[in-house]
Write a structure and sequence with these properties.
With 167 residues, this protein is an all-alpha fold. The protein has seven helices and no strands. The longest helix is centred in the middle third of the chain and has 24 residues, at 79-102. It is globular.
């Protein structure tokens, strides 16, 4: 397909970039949705969910060097489109949180706001900054620490941490 033919479907490069990011995020949504179906404790489910998101981003940044500038361009030039993509992305997480609230695992609160809060607070640990496997492991440890800390504030009862022995 020629570049000129693309403009039969998209008004400009920015619209094309939005469509590319929306498609990538739909793939993330599909893959991550399965992690939210687990019967594991909330802390483990959320850690796995965000950890897998980090790994998806790392994989895509390695495959596509232009991914980060593309994301930044859409975020800077079409904030509304970026926010629509993000809201759609957070829907599965908020549905999971709502389910956990309804069964008493998470303190009663607005699941959409909680999903947004978790998304914002874990952001720096979910997006690879450098790309080496050592850097990714550091981010994974940071992500685990963040999730563990957050769980103390949102769970109805303290659950034992996965990696620590009970005393």
């Amino acid at each position: 397909m020629s570049p000129a033919h693309l403009y039969n479907f998209f008004k400009n490069k920015l619209d094309l970039a939005v469509a590319v990011l929306a498609d990538i995020n739909r793939g993330y949504e599909d893959e991550l949705r399965d992690f939210l179906k687990s019967d594991q404790p909330v802390e483990k489910v959320l850690l796995t969910y965000f950890d897998q998101e980090l790994m998806f981003h790392a994989r895509d940044l390695q495959r596509h060097a232009g991914m980060k500038p593309l994301l930044q361009m859409v975020r800077n030039k079409n904030r509304m489109a970026y926010e629509r993509i993000e809201q759609r992305y957070l829907k599965n997480l908020s549905v999971y949180l709502d389910r956990q609230i309804s069964v008493g695992q998470i303190k009663p609160q607005d699941p959409v706001k909680l999903a947004q809060l978790l998304h914002v607070i874990t952001h720096s640990a979910r997006y690879p900054t450098f790309g080496s496997s050592a850097d990714i492991e550091i981010q994974r440890h940071s992500l685990r620490d963040i999730i563990e800390l957050l769980m103390t504030g949102i769970l109805t009862k303290k659950m034992p941490s996965a990696g620590k022995a009970e005393g």
